Amino acid sequence: MALLTCKDVTLGYEGMVVTENVNFSIKHGDYLCIVGENGSGKSTLMKTILKLVNPLKGEIITGDGLKQKEIGYLPQQTMVQRDFPASVSEIVLSGYLNRCGLRPFYTKGEKRLAEDNMRKMDILDLKDQCYRELSGGQQQRVLLARALCAAKKMILLDEPVSGLDPKVAREMYELIYKLNKEDGITVVMISHDINEAVRYADKILHIGSNSPLFFGDTRDYVKSGIADSFIRTKEAE
Amino acid sequence: MAELFDKLYTYFQFPFVRYAVIVAVLVSLCASMLGVILVLKRFSFIGDGLSHVAFGAMAIAAVTGLTNNMLIVMPVTVICAILILCTGQNSKIKGDASIAIISVSSLALGYLLYNVFSTSSNVSGDVCSTLFGASSILTLKQSDVWISIVMSVVVIVLFIFFYNKIFSVTFDENFACATGTSAKLYNLIVAVITAVIIVLAMNLVGSLLISALIIFPSLSAMRVFNTFKSVTVCAVINSVVCTSVGMIISILAETPVGATIVAVDAVVFIIYTAVGRIAGHKK
Ligand SMILES: Nc1ncnc2c1ncn2[C@@H]1O[C@H](COP(=O)(O)OP(=O)(O)O)[C@@H](O)[C@H]1O
Ligand SMILES: [Mg+2]
To answer: CB under 6 Å to ligand 1: residues?
Structure first.
């Protein structure tokens, strides 16, 4: 059964349509990459999947008993106020909130796992630092660590490598790939780098200016030639 | 010096003075905890707005001759708090504008009612003590004391119990919602707690000075500390210390309670700002 299905969904805000006829479905363990131009509605689609925005039409169906509490999310930009006092570990730990239920505090185990995730993101030594004093790339890694904490079955990432230097970006892609293949976590990622998208993802959703241009396996996507103008050919690389 | 201690000792022999101090410390402790959230949510002025609402409700209670004005003031303020805090970003009228509209109307209505209908011979005295708290803290009834203590304890327990959730929702509401935490519920809890604290604090500092009680301790803490936990703890300590010191000064020097407490808070804020500057330069 499908983990997530979008059926004839129209995306938009209060009467303003962004994209129409979005149809796709993914299974447990899939790695879906959403690509498309700026402003085509990728972030809106992700927010609609997360129920932060209501679809104007159509429906989004979750299956396999997927609960909202089992999803991790990395927003594109978090508008955190410049003066918000919060340490890195406070923020990363807040990813485990969805496992707490009525329990008021985090367990020792959750604190240890949060440290593991900070180590993976190479920010363990920043753990007592104030979030607002970090560089853009460091902040991005903090939010990714938080998303990892929250992701039990599925993780949604909105341009996870923006603001990271190429080496760290590559590590990030490898890490997400491992998360998908080894831990079996379903990945839905928005990326503006089509090369990386076709390298790692099993499925591609390409959104055009007002409706999706392609949904299917990565292999078929490359064959279809839709992305030719974006993909550097293997020989040229 | 010994004289002062003697004077203080004599005063503390009176039960109503002890009650006043206990209630003042508890209420300002709660106000400062909430202050951290309200400042970070950019709702610093909620205290002001809601206290004007409470003022309007007080006027209605006074005019209709209700003996226990809590019965009307509390529900009215809670409802307004929910309206203001839970309308969110999607509403047509922006948060600060809706606060302004509600608060100014209640203030005007309250004053009108006092003037037109009041049977009391000392209208401006009534209004003044509702606005500035005057000495009413020392004339608390035993039942008011118990209500204040119980409410404060409930607020403290709720805050500790939901501390991590409130942090997450305040820091990043979208993430909290996306991962299955009901931001609406916690915003509602914050709204209700805010209203309760404001009504309790009316007796202490009066409706014009409540904002100070809410925002000063946390703003001071934020000058120096930069994790959520340390800011919260520091704000609570600031608030308890300032209120105790302010109460003692006001007893010894016979100054108005509310204004004295707020003055102490302001001095502490200046000290923290200076410390923050100096520490900041060192880095
Ligand atoms: N909160 C919002 N309210 C109204 N319109 C919005 C909002 N957020 C985004 N949009 C509009 O929706 C369109 C799609 O935006 P977005 O989903 O962020 O695109 P992408 O992530 O693909 O770059 C844009 O035209 C943008 O202006
Ligand atoms: Mg986007």
So the answer is: A 13, 18, 36, 38-44
A71 is a domain residue: no
What distance in Å separates the CA atoms of residue B182 and residue B193, rounded to the nearest whole number? 17
Per the domain annotation, does A223 fall within a domain? yes
Report pLDDT digits (tens) over B139-154. 667 777 888 889 899 9
pLDDT at A231 exceeding the cut of 70 = no
A48 and A161 inside one domain: yes
Order of strands across the sheet that contains A16-26? A16-26, A4-13, A57-62
| DSSP 8-state assignment for residue B268 | H
Chain B: which residues have CB within 8 Å of chain A? Answer: 40, 42, 160-165, 167-168, 171-172, 174-181, 222, 225-231
Picking from B156, B169, B175 by the largest number of A CB atoms within 10 A of its own CB, the best residue to mutate is: B175
Q: Do B227 and A90 touch (CB under 8 A)?
A: yes
Cβ-based neighbour number of residue B91 at 10 Å: 12
CA dihedral sign, ordered A91, A93, A97, A98: positive
Quick one: pLDDT at residue B265?
A: 94
- The domains found in chain B, sorted by start residue, are 2-277 (1.10.3470.10)
CA of B152 to the centre of ligand 1 (A): 44
Q: Which domain does A165 fall in, by range?
A: 1-66+153-237
Query: What ipTM, to 2 d.p.?
Result: 0.87
